[in-house]
Design brief:
8 helices
């Protein structure tokens, strides 16, 4: 069954920034929930993931989103028409769509063509000297009020998560082993 658990609700409720743990197996999904993750992200099929966790499942781009509650649609991989088709196909399946953007132009295209509720802001595509944290922080002010924003900052540590929370991100994608460390501290004053 898809769409049963709402990613948007999980990351917008409560205090502070939510952690979405990227997992590769059911054991990691269960560990992520125990450690305080608000959702899990999958890059491929994970047998028994639904029995291992009650968290919402975000399907990262790769293939057909099996056992997911939400999926990522990457603007970079789409022209305007295929973006709309992919977005509407996912919505028709009962999935929430998280729209992956990395530039102001991609964000504008997404808002113009599909008006998504959730954005995944990615630092991909910058030159090697760009700081991934700075790239996502620079794009956040362009996300309209009322929309949810997830940061994809590889190797995020507690300091990075605090900076993302202060800036106004709703959630951050992290590796499963980092969850407990990242959610352990009190939320920073904003």
């Amino acid at each position: 069954m898809t769409g049963a658990r709402r990613l948007s609700q999980a990351i917008s409720e409560g205090d502070g920034i939510s952690v979405i743990a990227t997992v590769a197996d059911a054991g990691a999904a269960e560990a992520a929930e125990t450690q305080g993750a608000e959702a899990i992200a999958l890059g491929g099929s994970v047998p028994d993931v639904r029995t291992a966790t009650s968290l919402p499942v975000l399907w990262l781009p790769a293939s057909d989103p099996a056992d997911a509650d939400a999926c990522v649609v990457v603007v970079e991989e789409s022209d305007g028409d295929s973006l709309e088709e992919r977005y509407h196909a996912a919505v028709e399946r009962g999935l929430e769509c998280v729209v992956d953007v990395r530039t102001e132009e991609e964000l504008e295209l997404a808002l113009e063509r599909i008006e998504p509720e959730i954005f995944l802001i990615s630092p991909r595509g910058g030159d090697g000297d760009d700081d991934p944290l700075e790239r996502v922080l620079d794009l956040l002010p362009d996300v309209p009020a009322g929309k949810l924003a997830i940061a994809d900052v590889p190797g995020a540590d507690r300091e990075t998560v605090v900076a993302l929370e202060r800036a106004g991100f709703d959630a951050v994608l992290v590796a499963v082993g980092d969850v407990a460390h990242l959610v352990a501290a009190e939320p920073p004053p904003v």
